[in-house]
Amino acid sequence: MLVNGPAIPINGDDVHVLSTPVEFYEQLIQNISQAKDRLVITSLYIGNGQLEEKLYREIESFLERGGSATIIVDHGRGLRGEKKSTYARCLKMYKQYHHNLTLGYFYSPLVEQSIVAKRISQLQETLATQHTKIYLADDKLILSGANLESAYFTNRQDRYIQFSNRKLGNFFSILAQIITKHSYLMHSPDEGLNDARKVDFSSFKADVNAHLSNFDGLKESKHDTLFHPSVQAGWADVRNDEHLLESVLSNLTKEDKMYFCSGYFNPPSPLCQAISSTKASVELLSADCRANGFYKAKFPKSGITPAYQLFADDMLEELGSKELNYNEWNRDQWTFHAKGMWFYTSSSCFAASIGSSNFSHRSYLKDLEAGGLISTQNKSLQNALDAERSRIWAHAHERNTSIQKVPNWVKKVAPRLKAFF
């Protein structure tokens, strides 16, 4: 399979697919507890429950041992909750360990340009977020779509893959430094956040592109697996993720098969066109309305779940005559947040994506995303990726639109706000 763009050679035996939210949490805690030198965490936010407090304490133990840590969250989401916010808990930690802890709060230029959103944190999230999920402890890297909140550690289906590779860890560590460069920073426990910074669109794009070009290791051939890193920030014209996946889809054959899932199906036209044009057969999976995290939420969030039902209809219409199967995921007392693509030839899963992107309009155009594509000849890794995909599809069923009625106000509003989902 021809994949365009940078690649980092790795050994398939150094890739471990995590199976459950509990395994993800326990592995994360173990990695931090064993780390000696560096810790990098980027996420939308960190929660405030008992499981999260244990995570914070493990980070503090790492800092006490003299390690260097960087934590980056979204500005609006990180400050929400006042005394129970990510900001408040990290500030407590920063006051004790400010010499070896860097705290960054990414404030999207799209939010900066909105006078109203600047004043209302929840509105900021509708415009754009820092959405990457990078969990690095020394050379152990977990890439995921999961945030650091208790539901993602218990009963919220997501994906999590661990890599033990220094070069790959370095790539995402430097990427985190680039994000930090364009974030509000804590410079002093007494002064709070430095909010004098302004993001330079061209600088961000140049920094990311230069970083990607520095990690092109395709000439190294003594490995059975390649990791193709990708970054997506449509607002800065950084579109590595969409170009990478479009390249893969264009090179699939009639003998190939693609599985594609997202908790929030609302793919933009270029991705729909790539799916409809691919020669491979296609299996789609999204959240049953009951497995959507916004199901039965209060107004106006009550409209989000039925809106995604309409977006799925739009997607299927845009895919046109493409032959495919579309199912929905549901598991009692669970919600669905998994996203990714798996690529098969014959019965072997030879490639899979992993990362933060939901493959939606906002993922491509508004949010900051990171991840990549694993392409492998390692049979054990191929089997592990196939097993991961099978576990997710084990809870699939035929789509049933009668479970939830779409209110008339959603039918009127949703099409106008499609780009924000």
Automatic annotation (TrEMBL):
Give the main location.
Answer: mitochondrion
Q: Which UniProt keywords apply?
A: ATP-binding, Lipid biosynthesis, Lipid metabolism, Mitochondrion, Nucleotide-binding, Phospholipid biosynthesis, Phospholipid metabolism, Repeat, Transferase
SMART domains attached to this UniProt entry: PLDc
EC primary class = transferase
Q: InterPro entries annotated for this entry?
A: PGS1, PLipase_D/transphosphatidylase
Q: Which residue numbers delimit the PLD phosphodiesterase domain?
A: 126-152
Q: What is this protein called?
A: CDP-diacylglycerol--glycerol-3-phosphate 3-phosphatidyltransferase
This chain's source organism reads: Oikopleura dioica
